[in-house]
Amino acid sequence: MDKRWGTIGVLAGGLFAVNVVARLIIRFGFDGDDTAADRVSLVMFVVIGLTLAAVAFRWGRLRPLAVWAGDVAVVVLVAMALTVLVGPLVVGHSPFAGGAGTFFAQIWLYLLTTLLGAMIGYLVATALGLDHRSQQLKRYAEVKAAKPRRVVRR
Fold it and tell me: Using an 8 Å Cβ cutoff, are 40 and 108 in contact?
């Protein structure tokens, strides 16, 4: 159980680190250039989505959906809270500096990106037949096919 929470913490920290790096790039490299800042933000969201797609693909192969979906939900909520509340403080801004619209837009964009990333990763694993349930059904079919047919005498 301790390893499970450690993995969740490391993943949430990694997603937060991606956000911090993007914020620092925007702050020191493109301060005042909104177009470049938007591009860096887009790249940040793509990296976060791809990270969760890879996690969902890997965890979907190893564990049932009901187990890893809760872990991913905790990761997303913790990383989102850090990103929205602590991330702006790293670069010297207030979390609510842009107003309520910007604050909630960040939340919705983060949730949308992470949800799409996790869904794509799991759907790719399912389409390839590599998810946990497909592997269980494959093993069941192999076991049933390997048993010799029982002959009934009359």
Answer: no
122, 65 in Cβ contact below 8 A?
yes
For the chain, what is the HEC assignment? CHHHHHHHHHHHHHHHHHHHHHHHHHHHHCCCCHHHHHHHHHHHHHHHHHHHHHHHHHHHHHCCHHHHHHHHHHHHHHHHHHHHHHHHHHCCCCCCCCCHHHHHHHHHHHHHHHHHHHHHHHHHHHHCCCCHHHHHHHHHHHHHHHCCCCCCCC
Name the token pair of 3: 């390893």
Q: Which of 21-30, 50-59, 123-132, 139-148 comes out lowest in average pLDDT?
A: 139-148
Tens digits of per-residue pLDDT, 108-120? 999 999 999 999 9
pTM of the model: 0.83
For residue 55, give every residue at least 6 positions away whose Cβ sits within 8 Å of its Cβ, in sequence order, or none. Answer: 11, 72, 75, 118, 121
- Measured between its terminal Cα atoms, the distance across the chain in Å is 56
C-alpha–C-alpha distance, residues 55 and 68, integer Å: 10
97: confidence class by pLDDT, cuts 50, 70, 90: confident
Are residues 109 and 45 in contact, defined by beta-carbon separation less than 8 angstroms?
Answer: yes
Reading the block at residue 9, the tokens are 């913490």
